[in-house]
Amino acid sequence: MTIKKLLIANRGEIASRIISSAHDMGISCVAIYTEADQDTPYVREADQAFKLSDSYLNSKEILDIAIKSNSDAIHPGYGFLSENAAFANQVKRSNIRWVGPSANAIKKMGDKLTAKEIAIKVNVPTLPMTSDAKKANTIGYPILVKAAAGGGGKGMRIVNKAKDLNESIKSAEREAEGGFGDKRVFLERYIARSRHIEIQILGDSYGNIVHLGERECSIQRRHQKVVEESPSPMVDDEMREKMGQAAIKLASKLKYESAGTVEFLVDEKTKEFWFLEVNTRLQVEHPVTEEVTGIDLVKEQLRIASGQELGYEQKDIDFYGSSIEVRLYAEDPGNDFLPVTGKMIAFEPTDDPLVRWDVGIESGSNITANFDPMLAKIISFGETRTEAANKLALAIENSHFGGMQTNRDYLVSILRSNEYLNGDTTTDFVERVNLKSEIDLTKEEIVRFAKVGAMWVQGKNRDEAMVLKNIKSGWNNGRLPYQEVKLKLNEEELKIKYKPLRDGSFISEDNENIRIFNWSHDFIDVEISNVRYRSKISLEDDLLLVHTNKGDLLFNILPKFNIAQEEVIKGGLVAPMPGKVVEIKVKKGSNIKKGDTLVILEAMKMEHKVLAPDNGKVKEVLIKENEQVENGATLVVLD
Question: Phi then psi for 473, rounded to 5 degrees?
């Protein structure tokens, strides 16, 4: 059956990515969207778009839209319904092609306990595990609590001591039920110094199965991947062959069709590997495999779903070069990587150096707490791993985007670190390697770019002047004080003072000569003390985004006169991000110790604990369970 029209049962960057390959094959695309996504790029990129009345999890409505639009096939992307066996069956019963493996394979591999049983039957090594908390000691600590019905870091907790086990299980169960509709969890041995290595597989309906090499995804925080690459710096040809054959053996047992990923945990010292799970869908990190093999995985999925054979064998697959992907998240690395919301006032990826951007946002996009905090994936390719890492770091630095907190600068820190470049990328990387989470500029450099911003502001003021517009900035026939632009970066206030000179240049209060060569509404070319700065500029209300040679600085333009600030409740403990109150662990009058969990919030599908900053007593509780709170809202007042 030829696929002529494809409905994409997903959103954001993965919807855009699927549309790109489908269009390249001459396939028309149908998008679905909610109110929150009505202005996002993928909706415009699709040939047709239908608004959902509910959510991306409403399988009945999505199927109705597929029938109404005469779609031949449905591609579920990842997340949402991509590993929902019941939905896959509903699609097939409606005589619509399902772009993915069989419902039977999804069901078996979606249950991690069943998946482990099958792995054991085909002699693929697995880690010691149990579903009975009373048998935790037979595994030994540390232990990893894992959701039986899903992944993506949801429903996972590391437990180092027996006394923390019960609370961790309850929290994991609650998160698993919210994320997957299934609260079952199990316990597994946790290997601290390990690597997360996964094998990409492809299978067709004729029994042909190949692997496309490995990806290393060891650098994670909160069990969510941050950096992925292919090939892995630790895997040699012999190890690749062993892991690849183990993956094919498991896939053959399942009679696997479409793209999938067999995930393994590898001991850093012994290089032993153990089966973790099979992801029966396209992975977020699939682009790095595409870059080193030249195989478009989405196109292969569509070919297989239309009934075609792979047309090649394992010996036909070549691997060349190195590819690295980083995930750009809406989160604050300086605040324990907690997710944040806000507006992306500028998003202008560079084309020098040229890298691949898989994105679902654009300038002006509002980032809410409704979805996962991932904003984009940025992928580089190089003949060597070092070249790929340097190229990716430079591309991130050369791009102009911001307006809200992201992990951008932290990603650059990783890619430029000696530990990363030396391949020392075990799963404890984030905790073990102390990297800068903010832009790597000196105090002097920051002041210089504040001057760049101030010069742009004065140019804007002259451009918008209603009278005497042809007179140079600051012109007067008397001796007047320096002009001043007040900027704030994080919590630091910077006062930039300058005077115009007769030749049209300026001098700053600290005697730096400044000359503007070019000014526009989104750019300035300025020389400060014989150093040239060519910076993209974006302005949104009082937010001034100034591009530097190492990324962007987001300044607040402060008013010339102080404005009364809103009173802050003394002793108040505030929400670190917007979210829903899942559980309140204290009440008025409770005695607390430093580090005690006071409130549990759910934001962007993950749970986050709000901890007591010190010993004390609860004076007041200002929230209720299931209440939605904004970032900075006072939750509990402490005495």
Answer: -55, 130
Could you tell me if 597 and 609 are in contact, meaning their C-beta atoms sit under 8 angstroms apart? yes
Tell me how far apart the alpha carbons of residues 496 and 508 are, in angstroms, rounded to a whole number. 8
Residue 606 confidence (pLDDT) above 80: no
User: Of 281, 327, 408, 448, which one is the catalytic site residue?
Assistant: 281
The two structure tokens encoding residue 133: 């908390």
Return the SS3 of 379.
strand
Output the pTM of the full model.
0.85
CA distance 344 to 406: 10
Residues 6+ apart with CB under 8 A from 579: 369, 601, 602, 603, 604, 608, 628, 629
Length of the chain: 639
> Hey, what domains does the chain have and what are their CATH numbers?
5-99 (3.40.50.20), 115-124+197-320 (3.30.470.20), 128-189 (3.30.1490.20), 321-430 (3.30.470.20), 443-557 (3.30.700.30), 572-638 (2.40.50.100)
Instruction: Write phi, then psi, for 301 (nearest 5 degrees).
Output: -60, -45
Nearest to 289 by CA among 368, 188, 364, 217: 217
Distance (Å, rounded) from C-alpha 577 to C-alpha 630?
7
pLDDT tier at 472, thresholds 50, 70, 90: low
In this predicted model, what pLDDT tens digit does every residue of 321-360 receive, in sequence order? 999 999 999 998 888 888 888 999 999 999 999 999 999 9
Residue 554: how many other CB atoms lie within 10 Å: 20
C-alpha 276, offset from chain centre: 22
Does the annotation count 215 as an active-site position?
A: no
Whether residue 545 contacts residue 538, with contact meaning beta carbons closer than 8 Å, is answered with yes
Tokens of 227: 């950096």
Residue 509, number of CB atoms within 10 A of its CB: 14
Number of neighbouring beta carbons within 10 Å of residue 551: 21
Instruction: Tell whether the torsion through CA atoms of 6, 111, 152 and 596 is positive or negative.
Output: positive
Element (H, E) at 248: helix 237-254
Q: What is the dihedral of CA 585, 591, 596, 598, to 10 degrees?
A: 30
Helix axes 297-305, 286-293, angle to 10 degrees: 90
Assess contact for 174 and 582: CB atoms under 8 A.
yes
- Tell me the pLDDT tens digit for each residue of 189-239: 888 789 999 999 999 999 999 999 999 999 998 778 999 999 999 999 999
- Cβ neighbours for 225, distance < 8 A, ≥ 6 positions apart: 196, 217, 219, 284, 285, 327
Taking alpha carbons only, the member of 457, 454, 500, 459 closest to residue 477 is 500
